[in-house]
# Entry
Amino acid sequence: MFIFLGSITPETGGELIKNSGFPAHMFSYFVLSSAVLLYFSAKNFQKPFIKSALLAGSYGFFIEIIQFFISYRHFEVLDIIINFTGAFLIFSFLLYKKSKN
# Structure
């Protein structure tokens, strides 16, 4: 919900917020993918890692499509790439955590 609201409201934060877009996107989609992964794992979904990352990344893709039609927002392919990257970062995090154990 926070990702959607932040994605459709007018940008009013100035340079500081404007320049923090990519880290914010990556972190938001990492958290979203992690939350979906926890749910899918609890419900015993098959391949929960891939499904959670694809679902989170696809959510970002559809938000970009919505932004295309909003006059005060704009569609960016790079945002889609960053969203999917953030969503798939859960794999790197879990592999790193597993290697430490």
